[in-house]
Amino acid sequence: MSHVICITGVTSGIGKATALLFAAKGWKVIGTGRRKDRLDELHNHMGDAFLPLAFDVSDRDAVFENFSNLPAEFSAIDVLFNNAGISLAGKPVHEADMDDLETMVKTNINGVLYCCRAVIPGMVQRGHGHVVTMGSYSATWPNPGTNVYSASKAFVQLLTYDLREDLVGTPIRTTCIIPSVTQTEFPLARMKGDVEKAAKRFENLDPIQPSDIADTVWWAVNTPERLTVNEIRITPTRQTYGAARMYREPYIGD
Ligand SMILES: NC(=O)c1ccc[n+]([C@@H]2O[C@H](COP(=O)([O-])OP(=O)(O)OC[C@H]3O[C@@H](n4cnc5c(N)ncnc54)[C@H](OP(=O)(O)O)[C@@H]3O)[C@@H](O)[C@H]2O)c1
Fold this sequence. Notes:
Elements: E1 4-7, H1 13-24, E2 28-33, H2 36-46, E3 50-54, H3 60-68, E4 79-82, H4 98-126, E5 130-134, H5 147-167, E6 173-179, H6 186-190, H7 195-200, H8 210-221, E7 231-234
Parallel strand pairs: 1-2, 1-4, 2-3, 4-5, 5-6, 6-7
Helix pairs in contact: 1-8, 3-4, 4-5
């Protein structure tokens, strides 16, 4: 029997690259996202090894309904990759659109909680499983304009450590992937669909590619079960550690 991975947010970027990699290695893939047309494209490409599920991860009823009605051949999930996430606003909290801020909380925090709550009980029952979460490098230090996004990812990171605590004594493993700038459609949401502005995020940086993260997830999941890769931090080589930015007047640089 082939293994089953469930990846949230497979309609682009990291999720899509991970779905394609695991399918190529012979795994069955449950892939979720809101854009049904893109799920259908993947289904055409991957065939019966792919189960497309179109729902919004921030919709609690939809999450539980979808996970409680899985076809038998996809029901024993070995790996849950909580990948779906969004970054909006790009403004100070006191100026940002409240809907944008709430969407990040609902998607990046509630969405992860719902999927964990729906899928982990089956793993505990079967005595086998791996929960991979998607943190962010921006959750470690404050960044200009990413406030609530960063805070939501700090939640995900700490939740991953707490899941280890919850699951200690079971063979279930947890891994938080903590990447920095990865070349995907990710900045488009914050730039309100402005492709040129979004592309600037990647200029002259030689950013991480989605396939790099897919390879990392593949490695973490396929390590011997006696060990847990608790977290992995990845940056472009051209990026260094964050440091407190200082504002001086007149401005003389950081
Ligand atoms: N790219 C980076 O620089 C970077 C760095 C650190 C961490 N990350 C994290 O990596 C993860 C993947 O992002 P990416 O870079 O691959 O971006 P992406 O290309 O924009 O992909 C995001 C995925 O999340 C899904 N998604 C977003 N909101 C959703 C919702 N409410 N319900 C269901 N699915 C939803 C999207 O699908 P639909 O739109 O079809 O729903 C899409 O498949 C995110 O958690 C992101 O925070 C990215």
